[in-house]
Write a structure and sequence with these properties.
The protein is mainly α. The chain has one domain. Helix content is 59%, strand content 3%. The protein contains 13 helices and 3 strands. The protein has a 3-stranded antiparallel beta sheet. β2 and β3 form a beta hairpin. The chain is globular, with a radius of gyration of 22 Å.
Length: 411
Protein backbone atom coordinates (compact mmCIF):
# COMPACT_ATOMS: atom_id res chain seq x y z
CA UNK A 1 0.00 0.00 0.00
CA UNK A 2 1.33 3.41 -0.92
CA UNK A 3 0.12 6.92 -0.24
CA UNK A 4 -0.34 9.56 -2.86
CA UNK A 5 2.87 11.43 -3.40
CA UNK A 6 2.46 14.85 -1.82
CA UNK A 7 4.53 17.74 -3.02
CA UNK A 8 4.08 21.51 -3.32
CA UNK A 9 2.30 22.82 -6.39
CA UNK A 10 1.58 26.28 -7.70
CA UNK A 11 -1.97 26.13 -6.33
CA UNK A 12 -0.96 24.90 -2.86
CA UNK A 13 1.78 27.53 -2.56
CA UNK A 14 -0.56 30.29 -3.70
CA UNK A 15 -3.26 29.26 -1.22
CA UNK A 16 -0.71 29.20 1.62
CA UNK A 17 0.79 32.60 0.79
CA UNK A 18 -2.51 34.40 0.18
CA UNK A 19 -4.16 32.91 3.27
CA UNK A 20 -1.17 33.91 5.41
CA UNK A 21 -1.30 37.42 3.92
CA UNK A 22 -5.00 37.80 4.74
CA UNK A 23 -4.41 36.53 8.28
CA UNK A 24 -1.55 38.98 8.74
CA UNK A 25 -3.68 41.82 7.42
CA UNK A 26 -6.43 40.75 9.78
CA UNK A 27 -4.14 40.95 12.80
CA UNK A 28 -2.95 44.44 11.84
CA UNK A 29 -6.45 45.76 11.14
CA UNK A 30 -7.92 44.23 14.31
CA UNK A 31 -5.23 46.00 16.34
CA UNK A 32 -6.05 49.25 14.54
CA UNK A 33 -9.84 48.87 14.80
CA UNK A 34 -9.57 48.05 18.52
CA UNK A 35 -7.89 51.35 19.37
CA UNK A 36 -9.65 53.37 22.06
CA UNK A 37 -9.28 56.93 23.33
CA UNK A 38 -10.60 56.15 26.80
CA UNK A 39 -9.73 52.49 27.37
CA UNK A 40 -6.54 51.10 28.94
CA UNK A 41 -3.29 50.96 27.00
CA UNK A 42 -3.06 48.06 24.56
CA UNK A 43 -0.04 46.70 26.46
CA UNK A 44 -2.07 46.27 29.65
CA UNK A 45 -3.65 42.89 30.39
CA UNK A 46 -2.04 41.31 27.35
CA UNK A 47 -3.55 37.88 28.03
CA UNK A 48 -7.14 39.16 28.02
CA UNK A 49 -6.59 41.84 25.38
CA UNK A 50 -8.84 41.01 22.36
CA UNK A 51 -6.23 42.12 19.84
CA UNK A 52 -3.44 39.98 21.24
CA UNK A 53 -5.82 37.05 21.55
CA UNK A 54 -6.80 37.46 17.91
CA UNK A 55 -3.13 37.43 16.93
CA UNK A 56 -2.76 34.17 18.86
CA UNK A 57 -5.77 32.65 17.11
CA UNK A 58 -4.45 33.69 13.70
CA UNK A 59 -1.04 32.19 14.41
CA UNK A 60 -2.72 28.96 15.57
CA UNK A 61 -4.87 28.95 12.41
CA UNK A 62 -1.77 29.32 10.26
CA UNK A 63 -0.10 26.36 12.00
CA UNK A 64 -3.28 24.28 11.69
CA UNK A 65 -3.55 25.14 7.99
CA UNK A 66 0.00 23.98 7.29
CA UNK A 67 -0.38 20.80 9.37
CA UNK A 68 -3.69 19.80 7.78
CA UNK A 69 -2.16 20.53 4.40
CA UNK A 70 0.30 17.68 5.02
CA UNK A 71 -2.31 15.16 6.24
CA UNK A 72 -4.00 12.96 3.60
CA UNK A 73 -7.48 14.31 2.94
CA UNK A 74 -8.63 10.81 1.90
CA UNK A 75 -8.98 9.87 5.57
CA UNK A 76 -12.17 11.95 5.64
CA UNK A 77 -13.90 10.19 2.77
CA UNK A 78 -16.76 7.77 3.41
CA UNK A 79 -15.48 4.21 2.94
CA UNK A 80 -17.69 1.19 2.44
CA UNK A 81 -17.47 -1.36 5.22
CA UNK A 82 -15.51 0.85 7.64
CA UNK A 83 -17.00 0.98 11.14
CA UNK A 84 -15.59 4.45 11.88
CA UNK A 85 -16.48 7.24 9.48
CA UNK A 86 -14.84 10.55 10.54
CA UNK A 87 -17.13 12.65 8.35
CA UNK A 88 -20.29 11.12 9.85
CA UNK A 89 -18.91 11.43 13.38
CA UNK A 90 -18.12 15.10 12.73
CA UNK A 91 -21.64 15.63 11.40
CA UNK A 92 -23.26 14.11 14.50
CA UNK A 93 -21.02 16.16 16.77
CA UNK A 94 -21.86 19.36 14.90
CA UNK A 95 -25.61 18.70 14.99
CA UNK A 96 -25.38 18.06 18.72
CA UNK A 97 -23.57 21.34 19.30
CA UNK A 98 -26.02 23.24 17.07
CA UNK A 99 -28.89 21.88 19.14
CA UNK A 100 -27.13 22.53 22.45
CA UNK A 101 -26.47 26.19 21.68
CA UNK A 102 -30.23 26.78 21.40
CA UNK A 103 -30.89 25.55 24.95
CA UNK A 104 -31.23 28.40 27.48
CA UNK A 105 -28.56 28.13 30.12
CA UNK A 106 -26.19 26.31 27.76
CA UNK A 107 -26.05 28.64 24.79
CA UNK A 108 -24.64 32.11 25.46
CA UNK A 109 -26.67 35.05 24.18
CA UNK A 110 -25.02 38.19 22.77
CA UNK A 111 -26.66 41.09 21.00
CA UNK A 112 -30.00 39.30 21.09
CA UNK A 113 -28.74 36.09 19.44
CA UNK A 114 -27.82 32.79 21.09
CA UNK A 115 -24.88 31.54 19.00
CA UNK A 116 -22.05 30.83 21.45
CA UNK A 117 -20.98 28.04 23.77
CA UNK A 118 -18.61 29.02 26.58
CA UNK A 119 -15.43 26.98 26.94
CA UNK A 120 -13.70 26.79 30.31
CA UNK A 121 -14.04 29.26 33.19
CA UNK A 122 -15.84 32.54 32.53
CA UNK A 123 -12.71 34.41 33.65
CA UNK A 124 -10.90 33.19 30.54
CA UNK A 125 -13.68 34.40 28.26
CA UNK A 126 -13.22 31.76 25.53
CA UNK A 127 -16.32 30.92 23.49
CA UNK A 128 -17.14 28.82 20.47
CA UNK A 129 -19.68 29.21 17.63
CA UNK A 130 -21.04 25.85 16.41
CA UNK A 131 -22.33 27.59 13.26
CA UNK A 132 -18.71 28.08 12.19
CA UNK A 133 -18.07 24.37 12.59
CA UNK A 134 -21.17 23.69 10.48
CA UNK A 135 -19.49 25.33 7.45
CA UNK A 136 -16.57 22.90 7.60
CA UNK A 137 -18.75 19.90 8.43
CA UNK A 138 -21.18 20.44 5.58
CA UNK A 139 -18.38 20.69 3.02
CA UNK A 140 -16.66 17.50 4.26
CA UNK A 141 -19.93 15.56 4.58
CA UNK A 142 -21.33 16.55 1.19
CA UNK A 143 -17.99 15.88 -0.49
CA UNK A 144 -17.94 12.37 0.99
CA UNK A 145 -21.56 11.62 0.12
CA UNK A 146 -21.26 12.96 -3.44
CA UNK A 147 -18.12 10.87 -4.02
CA UNK A 148 -19.88 7.80 -2.60
CA UNK A 149 -23.06 8.25 -4.64
CA UNK A 150 -21.35 9.08 -7.92
CA UNK A 151 -23.85 9.17 -10.79
CA UNK A 152 -26.73 8.42 -8.40
CA UNK A 153 -26.79 12.10 -7.48
CA UNK A 154 -28.70 12.60 -10.73
CA UNK A 155 -31.56 10.52 -9.32
CA UNK A 156 -33.87 12.71 -7.25
CA UNK A 157 -35.38 10.31 -4.72
CA UNK A 158 -32.44 8.03 -3.97
CA UNK A 159 -29.56 10.42 -4.59
CA UNK A 160 -30.35 14.11 -4.40
CA UNK A 161 -33.19 14.25 -1.87
CA UNK A 162 -31.28 12.75 1.10
CA UNK A 163 -28.49 15.31 0.65
CA UNK A 164 -31.00 18.14 0.32
CA UNK A 165 -32.51 17.04 3.63
CA UNK A 166 -29.05 17.11 5.23
CA UNK A 167 -28.51 20.68 4.00
CA UNK A 168 -31.98 21.63 5.27
CA UNK A 169 -31.25 20.24 8.75
CA UNK A 170 -27.96 22.11 9.07
CA UNK A 171 -29.34 25.35 7.64
CA UNK A 172 -32.51 25.10 9.74
CA UNK A 173 -30.70 24.64 13.04
CA UNK A 174 -28.25 27.45 12.26
CA UNK A 175 -30.93 29.75 10.84
CA UNK A 176 -32.89 29.92 14.08
CA UNK A 177 -30.28 32.33 15.45
CA UNK A 178 -28.01 33.08 12.46
CA UNK A 179 -29.85 33.74 9.20
CA UNK A 180 -26.76 34.86 7.28
CA UNK A 181 -24.80 31.67 7.94
CA UNK A 182 -27.89 29.56 7.16
CA UNK A 183 -28.20 31.26 3.76
CA UNK A 184 -24.49 30.65 3.18
CA UNK A 185 -24.85 26.94 4.00
CA UNK A 186 -27.79 26.59 1.64
CA UNK A 187 -25.97 28.39 -1.16
CA UNK A 188 -22.74 26.39 -0.77
CA UNK A 189 -24.61 23.09 -0.44
CA UNK A 190 -26.72 23.72 -3.54
CA UNK A 191 -23.70 24.66 -5.63
CA UNK A 192 -21.79 21.60 -4.45
CA UNK A 193 -24.66 19.36 -5.53
CA UNK A 194 -24.77 21.11 -8.89
CA UNK A 195 -21.03 20.57 -9.24
CA UNK A 196 -21.45 16.89 -8.37
CA UNK A 197 -23.75 16.45 -11.34
CA UNK A 198 -27.25 17.01 -9.93
CA UNK A 199 -29.83 18.07 -12.49
CA UNK A 200 -30.57 21.77 -12.58
CA UNK A 201 -34.34 21.29 -12.73
CA UNK A 202 -34.19 19.00 -9.69
CA UNK A 203 -32.39 21.70 -7.72
CA UNK A 204 -34.77 24.38 -8.98
CA UNK A 205 -37.72 22.30 -7.84
CA UNK A 206 -36.15 21.69 -4.45
CA UNK A 207 -35.36 25.40 -4.08
CA UNK A 208 -39.06 26.24 -3.72
CA UNK A 209 -39.49 24.78 -0.21
CA UNK A 210 -36.06 26.17 0.61
CA UNK A 211 -37.25 29.68 -0.21
CA UNK A 212 -40.35 29.10 1.92
CA UNK A 213 -38.09 28.09 4.81
CA UNK A 214 -35.95 31.20 4.43
CA UNK A 215 -39.06 33.39 4.37
CA UNK A 216 -40.24 31.73 7.57
CA UNK A 217 -36.88 32.39 9.24
CA UNK A 218 -37.19 36.06 8.28
CA UNK A 219 -40.72 36.62 9.54
CA UNK A 220 -40.09 34.52 12.66
CA UNK A 221 -37.77 37.23 14.02
CA UNK A 222 -39.20 40.77 13.98
CA UNK A 223 -35.74 42.34 13.91
CA UNK A 224 -35.04 40.62 10.59
CA UNK A 225 -38.06 42.27 9.02
CA UNK A 226 -36.88 45.57 10.48
CA UNK A 227 -33.46 45.09 8.91
CA UNK A 228 -35.09 44.44 5.55
CA UNK A 229 -37.15 47.61 5.79
CA UNK A 230 -34.12 49.62 6.88
CA UNK A 231 -32.08 48.29 3.95
CA UNK A 232 -34.62 49.71 1.51
CA UNK A 233 -34.02 53.23 2.88
CA UNK A 234 -31.31 53.45 5.57
CA UNK A 235 -31.33 57.27 5.48
CA UNK A 236 -34.96 57.38 6.59
CA UNK A 237 -33.75 56.96 10.18
CA UNK A 238 -29.97 57.64 10.14
CA UNK A 239 -29.76 57.97 13.93
CA UNK A 240 -31.90 54.92 14.63
CA UNK A 241 -32.44 51.74 12.63
CA UNK A 242 -30.33 52.96 9.72
CA UNK A 243 -27.37 54.06 11.85
CA UNK A 244 -25.21 51.02 11.16
CA UNK A 245 -25.52 51.17 7.37
CA UNK A 246 -25.10 54.95 7.22
CA UNK A 247 -21.96 54.85 9.36
CA UNK A 248 -20.53 52.06 7.23
CA UNK A 249 -20.97 54.13 4.07
CA UNK A 250 -19.48 57.19 5.77
CA UNK A 251 -16.49 55.13 6.90
CA UNK A 252 -15.83 53.86 3.39
CA UNK A 253 -16.30 57.28 1.78
CA UNK A 254 -14.05 59.07 4.27
CA UNK A 255 -11.06 57.02 3.12
CA UNK A 256 -11.11 58.30 -0.44
CA UNK A 257 -8.70 56.68 -2.88
CA UNK A 258 -5.63 56.43 -0.64
CA UNK A 259 -7.09 56.39 2.88
CA UNK A 260 -6.46 58.30 6.08
CA UNK A 261 -3.41 56.19 6.88
CA UNK A 262 -3.00 53.02 8.91
CA UNK A 263 -4.29 53.69 12.41
CA UNK A 264 -5.50 57.20 11.51
CA UNK A 265 -9.16 56.35 10.99
CA UNK A 266 -11.69 58.02 13.29
CA UNK A 267 -14.89 56.05 12.69
CA UNK A 268 -13.64 53.21 14.91
CA UNK A 269 -13.77 55.52 17.93
CA UNK A 270 -17.37 54.73 18.79
CA UNK A 271 -19.02 55.73 15.51
CA UNK A 272 -18.96 52.48 13.54
CA UNK A 273 -20.40 49.48 15.45
CA UNK A 274 -18.66 46.10 15.05
CA UNK A 275 -15.66 47.77 13.41
CA UNK A 276 -13.27 44.96 14.35
CA UNK A 277 -15.57 42.10 13.37
CA UNK A 278 -18.28 42.19 10.70
CA UNK A 279 -17.48 45.70 9.45
CA UNK A 280 -13.70 45.56 9.38
CA UNK A 281 -13.73 45.98 5.60
CA UNK A 282 -15.12 49.50 6.10
CA UNK A 283 -12.20 50.29 8.45
CA UNK A 284 -9.79 48.97 5.82
CA UNK A 285 -11.31 51.29 3.23
CA UNK A 286 -11.11 54.27 5.61
CA UNK A 287 -7.47 53.75 6.58
CA UNK A 288 -6.06 52.20 3.40
CA UNK A 289 -8.46 53.79 0.96
CA UNK A 290 -10.35 52.37 -1.98
CA UNK A 291 -7.02 51.09 -3.31
CA UNK A 292 -6.55 49.06 -0.11
CA UNK A 293 -10.07 47.69 -0.33
CA UNK A 294 -9.54 46.63 -3.93
CA UNK A 295 -6.25 44.99 -2.95
CA UNK A 296 -8.06 42.92 -0.31
CA UNK A 297 -10.65 41.86 -2.88
CA UNK A 298 -7.79 41.01 -5.22
CA UNK A 299 -6.28 38.69 -2.60
CA UNK A 300 -9.60 36.87 -2.29
CA UNK A 301 -9.82 36.62 -6.08
CA UNK A 302 -6.36 35.03 -6.22
CA UNK A 303 -7.35 32.64 -3.43
CA UNK A 304 -10.46 31.57 -5.34
CA UNK A 305 -8.42 31.12 -8.52
CA UNK A 306 -5.97 28.89 -6.64
CA UNK A 307 -8.89 26.95 -5.15
CA UNK A 308 -10.20 26.35 -8.67
CA UNK A 309 -6.78 25.06 -9.72
CA UNK A 310 -6.75 22.73 -6.73
CA UNK A 311 -10.16 21.41 -7.75
CA UNK A 312 -9.01 20.76 -11.31
CA UNK A 313 -5.78 19.15 -10.07
CA UNK A 314 -7.53 16.59 -7.86
CA UNK A 315 -7.62 13.02 -9.15
CA UNK A 316 -10.63 11.81 -7.13
CA UNK A 317 -14.20 13.00 -6.90
CA UNK A 318 -13.81 13.44 -3.15
CA UNK A 319 -10.80 15.73 -3.57
CA UNK A 320 -12.56 17.76 -6.25
CA UNK A 321 -15.62 18.21 -4.10
CA UNK A 322 -13.55 19.21 -1.06
CA UNK A 323 -11.71 21.89 -3.05
CA UNK A 324 -14.95 23.07 -4.62
CA UNK A 325 -16.75 23.32 -1.27
CA UNK A 326 -13.88 25.16 0.41
CA UNK A 327 -13.54 27.61 -2.45
CA UNK A 328 -17.27 28.28 -2.53
CA UNK A 329 -17.47 28.79 1.24
CA UNK A 330 -14.65 31.34 1.30
CA UNK A 331 -15.82 33.11 -1.85
CA UNK A 332 -19.49 33.37 -0.94
CA UNK A 333 -18.80 34.46 2.65
CA UNK A 334 -16.36 37.16 1.51
CA UNK A 335 -18.85 38.38 -1.09
CA UNK A 336 -21.68 38.46 1.45
CA UNK A 337 -19.59 40.39 3.98
CA UNK A 338 -18.51 43.02 1.45
CA UNK A 339 -22.10 43.30 0.21
CA UNK A 340 -23.31 43.95 3.76
CA UNK A 341 -20.61 46.55 4.45
CA UNK A 342 -21.37 48.39 1.20
CA UNK A 343 -25.12 48.18 1.97
CA UNK A 344 -25.76 46.08 -1.13
CA UNK A 345 -27.75 43.55 0.90
CA UNK A 346 -29.48 43.79 4.31
CA UNK A 347 -27.28 43.73 7.42
CA UNK A 348 -26.47 40.29 8.81
CA UNK A 349 -23.79 39.02 11.14
CA UNK A 350 -21.23 37.44 8.84
CA UNK A 351 -17.48 38.00 9.07
CA UNK A 352 -14.84 38.65 6.42
CA UNK A 353 -12.94 35.34 6.25
CA UNK A 354 -9.45 35.35 7.80
CA UNK A 355 -9.59 39.12 8.41
CA UNK A 356 -12.39 39.84 10.89
CA UNK A 357 -11.83 39.23 14.59
CA UNK A 358 -13.14 35.87 15.75
CA UNK A 359 -11.25 32.84 17.01
CA UNK A 360 -13.67 30.10 15.96
CA UNK A 361 -13.96 31.31 12.39
CA UNK A 362 -10.26 31.74 11.67
CA UNK A 363 -9.33 28.37 13.21
CA UNK A 364 -11.91 26.43 11.21
CA UNK A 365 -11.07 28.29 8.03
CA UNK A 366 -7.50 27.19 8.71
CA UNK A 367 -8.69 23.57 8.62
CA UNK A 368 -10.69 24.15 5.43
CA UNK A 369 -7.76 25.84 3.70
CA UNK A 370 -5.48 23.02 4.86
CA UNK A 371 -7.73 20.49 3.12
CA UNK A 372 -7.62 22.58 -0.06
CA UNK A 373 -3.82 22.74 0.15
CA UNK A 374 -3.61 18.99 0.60
CA UNK A 375 -5.81 18.41 -2.45
CA UNK A 376 -3.57 20.72 -4.48
CA UNK A 377 -0.40 18.93 -3.29
CA UNK A 378 -1.48 15.50 -4.51
CA UNK A 379 0.30 14.17 -7.59
CA UNK A 380 -1.95 12.39 -10.03
CA UNK A 381 -1.37 8.82 -11.12
CA UNK A 382 0.02 7.39 -7.86
CA UNK A 383 -1.86 4.64 -6.06
CA UNK A 384 -3.17 5.18 -2.53
CA UNK A 385 -4.03 2.71 0.19
CA UNK A 386 -7.69 3.39 -0.58
CA UNK A 387 -7.32 2.76 -4.31
CA UNK A 388 -7.33 -0.99 -3.77
CA UNK A 389 -10.79 -0.70 -2.22
CA UNK A 390 -12.48 2.16 -4.10
CA UNK A 391 -15.82 3.42 -2.91
CA UNK A 392 -18.62 4.03 -5.31
CA UNK A 393 -18.24 7.39 -6.91
CA UNK A 394 -14.44 7.34 -7.07
CA UNK A 395 -14.69 5.28 -10.27
CA UNK A 396 -11.08 4.13 -10.12
CA UNK A 397 -11.55 2.05 -13.25
CA UNK A 398 -11.98 5.15 -15.44
CA UNK A 399 -11.11 8.83 -15.30
CA UNK A 400 -13.53 10.77 -13.11
CA UNK A 401 -15.62 13.43 -14.82
CA UNK A 402 -14.28 16.89 -14.03
CA UNK A 403 -16.59 19.02 -11.94
CA UNK A 404 -16.88 21.61 -14.70
CA UNK A 405 -17.86 18.93 -17.19
CA UNK A 406 -20.49 17.58 -14.81
CA UNK A 407 -22.03 21.03 -14.53
CA UNK A 408 -21.85 21.61 -18.27
CA UNK A 409 -23.66 18.33 -18.90
CA UNK A 410 -26.73 19.77 -17.20
CA UNK A 411 -27.01 22.83 -19.42
Amino acid sequence: MTWLDSRPSGASTTISIVAASLMGLGVVMVFSASASLTGPAITENVISNPSFRQATFNFAALVIMLMVGLCPYESWQIRKGAWFQPALFLALLTLGLLAAVLVPGIGEERNGARRWLSLGPSSIGVSFQPSELAKLTLVVLLAGLCARLGERVRKFWTGLLPMLLIIAVFAGLVGIEDFGTAALLGLVGGCMLLGAGAKVWHLALAALPGVVGLVYLIIDKPYRLERLKTFLDPFADPQGSGYHQVQSLITIASGGWWGQGLGAGVQKYGYLPEGRTDFIFAVICEELGLVGGIAVLGLFAVLLWAGRKAMLRANTDFGRMLALGGTLTIGFQAAMNVAVVTVSIPTKGIALPLVSAGGTGVLLFGVLLGLMINVARRRQGVETQWAAHPVRGDRADRPAMPIGAAMAAQL
